[in-house]
Amino acid sequence: QVQLVESGGGLVQPGGSLQLTCVASGFDFSRVGVAWYRQTPGKERDVVAAVGVADSITYYSESVKGRFTVSKDHAKRTLYLRMNSLKPEDTAVYYCMTHVGGSDYWGQGTRVSVSL
Question: pLDDT (tens digit, 9 = 90+) per residue, 48-59?
Fold first, then answer.
């Protein structure tokens, strides 16, 4: 079955960096787009970054553009999110997501906290 497993979250100071990892299994990783979302308490999940079937096709929300970079390693079936210049407002639970066979699939999430 489709599985997405995130890791890499943690506590970091403002201005710091983190790299999130999402390992995928159960579907053809090279044939679907994948995305990173984030969610804070009481709010809906918002898309942060996404990469299409073609790795050159990427999307970033305005709030992270220029600071975050999304990438895929097809051999490792892994999606990455490199986050630089982190701000307190980036604090959230980050989720990996894909759409396969008409259904959305989500990972369990990894928590990122940006604080002094």
Answer: 999 999 888 999
